[in-house]
Amino acid sequence: MYVCICHGVTDKKIAETIDNGARSMRDLSQTLSVGKQCGKCCNCAKKILNEKLIAIVDVTDQVA
């Protein structure tokens, strides 16, 4: 699904960027230009970011 229409960024691309090390909206903005134009994508991008980061922490906690 497209999250950022202005820059053609999908939810999968955001998830991939997080998997590759992005840990904040600033990281997503610098890498994908999310939120740099109209800003309507910010809430959805933040939701994806938070869900992915929680999943990463859960996996890390299970391994430890």
Automatic annotation (TrEMBL):
Residues 2-51 form the BFD-like [2Fe-2S]-binding domain. GO terms for molecular function: 2 iron, 2 sulfur cluster binding; metal ion binding. Coiled coil: none annotated. Its cofactor is [2Fe-2S] cluster. Keywords: 2Fe-2S, Electron transport, Iron, Iron-sulfur, Metal-binding, Transport. The keyword Signal does not apply. The keyword Iron-sulfur applies. Belongs to the Bfd family. This is Bacterioferritin-associated ferredoxin. It comes from Pseudoalteromonas piscicida.
